[in-house]
Amino acid sequence: MPRKSPRSRRKSGTPPSLPASPRVRSAPGQSRTRAAKTEHVLKGARPAAAAAAKKSAAKKKVAAKARRPVAAPARARKAPTPDPVRVAALLEQLREAYPDARCALDFRTPLQLLVATILSAQCTDERVNMTTPTLFAKYPDAAAFAAANPAELERMIHSTGFFRQKAKSILQACADIVARHGGEVPRTLEALTELRGVGRKTANVVLGNAYGIASGIVVDTHVTRLANRLGLTSEQDAVKIEFALMPLVPRESWTLFSHWLILHGRAVCNARKPRCSMCPLAPHCPRVGVTLSQ
Length: 294
Ligand code: SF4
Known about the structure:
Layout: H1 6-11, H2 32-43, H3 47-67, H4 84-97, H5 110-119, H6 125-138, H7 142-146, H8 150-157, H9 163-181, H10 189-194, H11 200-210, H12 221-229, H13 238-245, H14 254-267
The structure holds iron/sulfur cluster.
């Protein structure tokens, strides 16, 4: 049977066949054999080789994606550089809003404040204030605390949580105070932080509130949150936040500044839904990271 030309096949009503694969030409610098191999893979003439090529391409794609820099999560607003005028305005508003700010823990001596501060970790100030009157009546000084029966002390502070660790910290710190400082709570940050169980935050609380010595700024969860929202720092580590805040706030206001932020954090700028619409700091607050407010 004679072969028909494509034109004559179309004329005679032969259904059109799928277009043939384009002929693979070798790229400049590529041999004809290599081009032919590629053609085989593309056509599926060698399924195993084609699958391997596909797998390798997918792997390369995943690796390239992993190498791509990951964008930081978008924040609601960008933190501005804290300029002195804005910080001064914030301090003025805070001073006006909380004229009676003071330490929320009840104490009469530096030692009592030290013990109360140790107890306040992961516990409310109200709960600590309910616990300390009996405690301070039973253990009037550092020597009495140092000689306390651990089980008895644990029982007395049980309601403040983490009672075993807290009892250990109190016993060790008081033993050090008796042994190295004649029973008196030391007056420097260095000496205080050398006591077992006493960290920088506790030392700053005692120095600022019991001795009136501005040694640093107390940074707790409220201070961390507000310092960030107010655009005063973008740090999350307590010590780094403290060192970022110290040059911004006048030294004589360091102790009060912590109280102001803690009170404001509890009353207005709470963690989940800050009350920005009624906040006196709103005109000076960039609300960094705030996505939901009332
Ligand atoms: S304006 Fe909003 S985010 Fe800023 S301090 Fe006030 S409550 Fe907090």
